[in-house]
Specification:
Elements (H helix, E strand, L loop, with lengths): L8 H4 L6 E5 L1 E3 L5 E6 L2 E6 L5 E3 L12 E5 L3 E4 L3 E5 L6 E6 L4 E8 L6 E7 L6 E6 L4 E4 L9 E5 L5 E5 L2 E9 L7 E9 L14 E8 L3 E8 L6 E7 L13 E5 L4 E5 L6 E5 L4 E6 L4 E4 L7
Length: about 300
């Protein structure tokens, strides 16, 4: 049973409302600000004036490399052990959830259709991270069953509710199916979409390249394809948002920009505006559908 066909969900996830994308970037409710993480700060760029300012955080809430998401009412900000929600209209914060003792919150992602909130969590000492769904009625995180996709990372939903993520450096696409009453009510159902990883093994530092941040647009996917374990070489690439094997497409991609560190992406709730912040450029870029390319936003850094 798909999330998009489960009628009862409308009431079940009403408390979370309709959500957009997540990860290390987001667009605030109403589309006024593009938000990104910067070390222990959360920075907001006004999309009218392009001026940047720091988001004041609750006292004692430290966010080294914040995990970000947005609903139509709130901006979600997570650190390693809890997720908080900020209402731009009121300026108030509330705690959404905490992970269990001995676990670390790695990432957040949200389905704009169902309102499902997905958390990537890693238990101390574990070799791989796992996925959890936040149940707002029981107020707890529930595990997602995953049979053959080792350590899926960087999950993100597009405006239509399709799920994208990376696994072993490649881009995958699928959904989280819901089957109440079964041993595993939440099940990851997905297939590899684009093989973007460059893999190797030798005694020196890694020279491999992996897909990381994904910006899922209607026609294309904009992907941070960079060094697998650490900063360094890489690029922002564009690939068709299609199955290359089913459509017999060449396994090739277009490089749009260099990415010598890492990137933060943000997708509007309707999917019509896609932004990506390239940290080595120190600026936001917006995807122009007519030009089919990235265009830099004016850069007015915080004073």
């Amino acid at each position: 049973m798909k999330w998009t066909t489960a009628l009862w969900m409308l009431g079940f996830f009403a408390a979370l409302s309709s959500m957009a994308t997540a990860g290390t970037g987001a667009i605030t409710p109403g589309g006024k600000f593009a938000v990104r993480t910067q070390e222990d700060l959360v920075m907001m760029t006004d999309l009218d004036s392009f001026e940047e300012k720091e988001l004041p955080l609750p006292k004692g809430f430290l966010v080294p490399w914040a995990r970000l998401a947005a609903t139509d009412r709130e901006l979600l900000v997570g650190n390693s052990y809890r997720a908080m929600a900020w209402n731009p209209a009121t300026g108030k914060w509330r705690q959404l959830f905490r992970v269990e003792w001995g676990e670390e919150l790695i990432d957040l992602a949200v389905d704009p259709h169902s309102g499902m909130l997905l958390a990537v969590v890693k238990r101390k000492g574990a070799s791989e991270a796992g996925w959890r769904v936040w149940d707002p009625i029981a107020r707890q995180l529930v595990g997602v069953f995953n049979r053959r996709a080792p350590e899926p990372l960087h999950p993100v939903f597009d405006a239509e509710g399709n799920l994208y993520f990376t696994c072993m450096g490649d881009v995958w696409k699928g959904s989280i199916d819901f089957a109440p009453g079964y041993q595993h009510p939440y099940v990851l159902t997905a297939t590899r979409l684009w093989p973007l990883a460059e893999m190797e093994t030798y005694e020196g530092n890694t020279a491999g390249v992996s897909a990381k941040e994904i910006l899922p647009l209607k026609k294309f996917l904009i992907v941070d394809r960079s060094r697998t374990n650490g900063s360094g070489w890489g690029s922002i690439v564009k690939i068709p948002n299609e199955d290359p094997f089913a459509k017999h497409l060449p396994l090739d991609w277009e490089e749009l920009d260099g990415c010598d560190s890492w990137a933060s992406s943000a997708l509007s709730r309707d999917g019509k505006r896609g932004l990506i912040y390239v940290h080595s450029d120190h600026r936001w870029w917006e995807y122009d559908e007519e030009e089919e390319d990235l265009e830099p936003l004016p850069n007015h850094p915080v004073k």
